[in-house]
Amino acid sequence: MSATTIRILEELMRSGGFRSGEELSSVLGSTRSAVWKHIRLLRQDGYDIEAVTGRGYRLTATPGYPDAIETGRFLQTSVLGQRIEHHRSVMSTNAQARKLAREGAPEGLVVTADAQTGGRGRMQRVWHSPPGVNLYFSIVLRPPVPPRVVPQIPLLAAAALHTALASVAGGVELRIKWPNDLLAGGRKLCGILCEMESEADMTHVVIVGIGVNVNLRALPPEIETVATSLLLETGREFSRPELLASILNAFEPLYRRWLEVQDLSPVFDYLEEYSWLRGKQVEVDQYGRRLKGVAAGISPTGELLLDMPDGSQTMVSSGETHLIPDNERT
């Protein structure tokens, strides 16, 4: 979308009523025929714009893209989301954000997409990414911290996600599953994928990729028993731009505090209170090595604390966690 098209959209949003072609052409320093061309482009992009002879143009509905214009109306941040690059479709927002970061993109840049053709989660698993219904976005961070503390960021993001979603989905049981998921009623609602570029004791960039199932009405058979969406849980649709802004608004102050302390103390009690695993028998798959025990919580630095059958306690820094079925518990 060109700068002129964006300006016309902003003028229509700001007025809330009719703006004549003459007014718009005067503001933009262009002809009325040029204004009409941009109106036509906006309509093609999904914006409903009413045209009435003698009155002008009025914006009646937007497509709800999580872009800079629509999300910016709800943002209360100073860094995160102050620049948003939106795509109708990308292979993955993480890949695009990583590319932009290598080109010098500043901290706080957010890449969003209406659809992903190669969306993925941890362990290279496919992330179901249909168009127009969910949130797919990646945040560029440049934290001046050693790489060893970066694995705490997914839990920080999970706390922000829980805070934002709990405020709009009252009554839904939201729980944080170590290390990177948010569950609703025991089924996956959000996933977080963090990727880092670093050397020695220096972190160059961290890409925080987040997928939220928002207005999804149906799931593929292979995941319908393990995943869900806000719509399926509440029976109503949500504004994706407003939801994105709420998440960024919740994340920024937590991130700032984390930069100061470089541990999970800003969210530790929150993570413990809303833990999905705490007190349950779990199995952790560490790339072929399997550990079984009772999840006792997390450490201040983000490791999963596992009470082992022999009475010892071990700290798990990474891995996939699964609840042990009732018939297999000891």
UniProtKB/TrEMBL annotation:
What's one Pfam family here? Answer: HTH_11
Keywords attached to this entry: ATP-binding, Biotin, DNA-binding, Ligase, Nucleotide-binding, Repressor, Transcription, Transcription regulation
Ranges annotated as spanning the membrane? none
Query: Which reaction(s) does its UniProt entry say it catalyses?
Result: biotin + L-lysyl-[protein] + ATP = N(6)-biotinyl-L-lysyl-[protein] + AMP + diphosphate + H(+)
**Annotated biotin binding sites:** 92-94, 116, 120-122, 188
Domain BPL/LPL catalytic, chain residue ranges per copy: 63-259
Record-annotated DNA-binding residue ranges? 21-40
Query: What protein family is recorded?
Result: Belongs to the biotin--protein ligase family.
Q: Which PANTHER family match?
A: BIOTIN PROTEIN LIGASE, BIOTIN--PROTEIN LIGASE
**Protein name according to UniProt:** Bifunctional ligase/repressor BirA
Please name the source species. Prosthecochloris vibrioformis (Chlorobium vibrioforme)
User: What is the gene called?
Assistant: birA
